[in-house]
Structures are given as C-alpha cells and as structure tokens.
Amino acid sequence: MKILIDSSIVSKGGGVQVALSIIENIATDENFEVICVVNTEIDKQLSLSAKSNIEHYYVENIEPIYRKFTQGKRISLIEQKHKPDFVFVVFGPAYWKPKAKTLQGFALGKMLYEKELNIGLKEKILNIVKKRIFQWSQSYLLVETDLVKTKLANYLGYLPEKIFVIGNSYSPNFKKNVVANEEKITKKVDFFQVLVPGSYYPHKNLERIIFSLIYIKNNQNFNNQIKVVFTIPENSNEWSNLLILAKENGVDHFITTVGFVENSKFAELYLQSNAIICASLVESSTAVFPEAFLANRPLIVSDRPFAKELCEDAAVYFDPLDEKSIANAIIKLANDEKLQQLLVENGQKILLKNYPSADQKWSLQKNLITRLYSK
Question: Where exactly are the transmembrane stretches of this chain (predicted)?
Fold first, then answer.
C-alpha cells in the first residue's frame, strides 16, 4: 500500500512522541511505500535509519495558524504528485482535504470541554474553525479513549462507527531507555523529586502546582525536602512567568527546569524522580500515565474523568482547582512509602490492562489502516 503520513502539525508535547513512534514503525514495514511529511521538530528527533528507509520525505516549517492553509496546499500538491492509496494525518485537523481515504488522529481535548473551561473568545473562534475543518474532511477519526470517542461523536455530529479507539502507549525508545538505565539511575533519596513532564499549555494547570507549594512550605507535618522539576525551556516566556510567580510567593527554591527534553531522554528523568504529577484540567489522553507505570514511579493526578478512566487505582487524586488539595496529595504520597509501593504495583496491572505495548499499538494501527483501506 502506498501511504502518505502527514505529521506536519504536531511540534511539541506528547504528539511528537506519537508521530515519531508511527514513523519509526512504518518506515521499516515492507507492506507500505511511504510518503512522509514532517516538520522541523519531528525531523530533528527522527532516527537516520527511519529517514533512509522512507523513499519520499518532505520537511515543512512549523507554521502559525494563519499559514496552515497555505501549508495545506503544499501538502495537497505532494498528494497529487505521489497519488497515495491512503492518508494518515497523525493529529488533525489537516488544513487540506486529501483525495485518498483518510484517517486523522484527534488530540484536542480542550475542544470537548468548553463549558467546563474558561476559554477566551479567540480560542472559541479557533475551535469553531477546527470543528468545521474536521466536519469538512469527513475522514475517519482515531482517538485514544472511549470517553473521547463519545464526546467527539456528539461534538462533531459524527457517526460513532467512523471514530476508532486505540489506547495510548509509551514509545519504543522510552522502554528501551528504562530497561537500559533502571539499574544505573535511582530516584532521589535526599529530597522528594516530583516531575512535571511536558510542554506548557494553559490547560496543564501548572500555576496551581506553584501555588500548592505555599501550603507545602507552611505544613509542619511535612519533613521532606521537595523539588518540583519542569521540562520547559529556561529562556521561554512560560518559564519566566512561572518563576516570577514562584518568587512572588517565596517558593522559587522548590522549583527548577531541565529545559526541553528530547523524547529519547525522558526515561532517565522519570527514573531520577520519586513521583510524577499531572495537574491537567483536560486531556484527550497522555503518555505520562503509561510512562510512569513503565518506569515504576507513582502518579499524582487530577481527579477528572479522563484520569480516572486511564489510571483507576494507580494514582493519588486531587482537585486540580484547589491548591491545598494538590499540596495534600503530594504530602500524602511523600510521607507514605507503603502507598508509593502500592501505586507502583497497581500501575503495573493498569499498564497491562489499559495500555497496549509500543509493538501492540503499531499492530493495531496497521490493522486499522489496512481494514479502512480495504473497505
């Protein structure tokens, strides 16, 4: 089958990991002749062996929203040139309409929670535009949880039969680096390190984590030293704003950032940490959960339906809109080694129950593409 993979839209966060995993797998699969469109960030992290196995490889710039349609025209010309049998847009919406049968990934969880979130007029308008583009495409859609499938079908007015679910997973590189380093790298013992993996987005709710540190600082029952580690570029406005907020509240000594971390290096950071926190208000899915389970690190997460569906009894939950609740969850876990061990053990079970392995996920993706193409 001749297939065009369009990963031009995703440039940060978990979407990059998903794109890399798909491209690395399909590049070595003899059943596919691949035309691949990536952006500069994907190109930077993709292995040389994968690139060498892709016969037709195109690199696009990371464009602002107002240039996406112009970029879409360029990608449409690539489709016209190669005439693929099938198009897979890793995450949409694609700002072009393929002529071939198309499957698009969906990871815009905030669109489905407008009523619950206080979003501005500009974002509401962008959501309307993206909604119309998805409806215009009439492509098949791929999501990572049943909850998102139900909400998305209602939001777009889509037939549920056109939306497919394949659970999220960790990348092959993440697993390889966990296995290679779990004996060499151990979690901190002189202080309790909490990792906040991922890029900055408003819905990640990172400011609340900063405010929670005020309660931790003033809690007399908490005897541990704590360090909250972010993965936000040190020279970015987002980190500057978080640091200012922390300094204003006298908790800047509790936080640090290691800056941007390539996908292949994330495993080492997990292994160095005592716990992983996800304070997001909404997620369509996230690789943070299976990565924490695989690295044997306990989770502290928002008490939200998306998290309960994916983590079950393998996390300590908190109200993401209540800084004191976040602080209490961190303190509870840091002070209870038996709880930490229980969550790790539960995480191993949930990993097998709710998440395909990296190889299994590719097998599911391949089978879905083949089945849709044959329809």
Answer: none
User: Among 210, 221, 273, 271, which Cα is nearest to 244's?
Assistant: 210
The CATH code of the domain at 2-168+357-374 is 3.40.50.2000
Homologous superfamily (CATH) for 172-354: Glycogen Phosphorylase B; (3.40.50.2000)
Where are the domains positioned within the chain? 2-168+357-374, 172-354
Cα 351 to the chain's mean position, in Å?
16
Residue type, 59: V
pTM over 0.85? The answer is yes
Is residue 280 within 8 Å of 203, Cβ to Cβ? yes
Question: What pLDDT score was predicted for residue 209?
Answer: 98
Residue 223, pLDDT above cutoff 70: no
Mean residue pLDDT of the chain comes to: 94
CB atoms under 10 Å from CB of 186, counted, come to 10
Give the whole-angstrom CA distance, residue 332 versus residue 35: 50
Residue 335's nearest CA partner among 298, 287, 285 is 298
- Per CATH, 2-168+357-374 and 172-354 having the same topology is answered yes
Place of tokens 């037939």: 159
Q: Check: CB of residue 220 under 8 Å from CB of residue 254.
A: no
